[in-house]
Amino acid sequence: MTNKPTSAFPDDFLWGAATAAYQVEGGHDADGKGPSIWDIYSHLPGTTHAGTNGDVAADHYHRFKEDVALMAEAGLTSYRFSISWPRLLPQGRGTVNQAGIQFYSDLIDELLKHNIKPMITLYHWDLPQALQDIGGWESRVTVEAFEEYAKLCYQAFGDRVELWSTFNETLIFIGMGYFTATHPPGISDPKRGLQACHHVFVAHAKAVQAFRQYQQFGTVPSNGQIGFVNVMQPHDPISDSSEDVAACNMADDLLTHWLYDPVLKGEYPTHILNLAQATWGAPVFAEEDEMLLKDNICDFIGVNYYKREWIAANPDVENTKINTTGEKGSGQEFGFKGLFKFVRNPNSTYTDWDWEIYPEGLCVGMMRLKERYGDIPFYITENGLGAKDPIIDGEIVDQPRIEYLSSHIAAAESAIKQGVDVRGYYPWSFIDLLSWLNGYQKQYGFVYVDRDNHLNRRRKKSFFWYQDVIKSNGAVR
């Protein structure tokens, strides 16, 4: 008698996949939706690869039932998606677009019909342009508008949704929006960026506070949870020199602790806050901000893991451009002069976009966070391989994706065995979609979208592999 393979994943572990509204939905102006900052920015010359944008994307807005049926066929037990703020509130606040409410309500019902648990992300970078026009995240008005938007979502969908997160990847939308000027609003000003980042954390705290109030009223389930999704990007020094180690510590403080501490400790790292305020006079706190952060620690942390970064001291490099071509080795050293820089390790393996493939980093990163923040629940909210998938004899043979995800699932299992409370795994992404600056050439999905043939959906080799992973609860991979 053959023994059935087993795994360390708990029986109620959520096997999901993820997308984001602007990248997958299309319908950019359908049924009363207002413009987001990405609707405007992506149409500016030179901002994205080959001028690509999300006007149509994968047309999930019109084809969500077909897509959910594919999710059910794959065996997904959860689906992480974001809500388009301007689809619900075209001006960012005020008048509600009922067609937008209906779309997400229908999507949630369709998921539940197939026993797929929704995980909602409230903000995945598509700020209503109307709010950007009055200052965006630099304005306290946007903080108030986000609280209003969050409450609207709780009221409309809270009866059916248990898992929520407020923001996705502050490191990216603030870092690239306000420090490197490569995402909207295209600004390079640390003072403004620090203030915008602080307002995001205040908006998060207000949304968490409202969520818990609504739990008391029964608007959202008593067992509902609300979290925050961050990039998890472990840093290691390229050498054991004191200069490289100090640079790595600085990278940890600025790119990890600054972004995790406010939502898991309710405060900033004191020495970095003092440095920022002394250097730039930001962030400026309103009177209630300190207590808001302290009183509204989130229930879980979502981690988006793709790569590790090797860190070196940086006396000379000032470069914030990244590889958006998919030509391996075309990226330059990314760094902030006098602080640190990212460097390549010649002994490592890299993707076509110069991202190191290091599966162990998924376990290492969560272990480091557990050491700093204690026994917090984790959801792996993104993990995936961006590649140009080959089509051989009509089959999308994405074997490198299978190998990538398989090794990372093994790392997640290792973390569980070492006591990390990992509750779900959401590969990025369920379906091929717009990859922001990279356009449609960078594919992540289990489902191929034939952009030359009416956006027809085709299952990749990885689709059937993930189906088996889910059936075995991670034992077969």
From TrEMBL:
Q: Name one GO biological process term.
A: cellulose catabolic process
What family does this belong to?
Belongs to the glycosyl hydrolase 1 family.
Gene3D superfamilies named among the record's database cross-references: Glycosidases
Q: Which NCBIfam families match?
A: BGL
Instruction: Supply the alphabetized keyword list.
Output: Carbohydrate metabolism, Cellulose degradation, Glycosidase, Hydrolase, Polysaccharide degradation
Molecular function terms, GO-annotated: beta-glucosidase activity
Put simply, this protein is called Beta-glucosidase
- UniProt-annotated catalytic positions: E169, E382
Q: Name its species.
A: Photobacterium sanctipauli
User: What Gene Ontology cellular component terms go with this record?
Assistant: cytosol
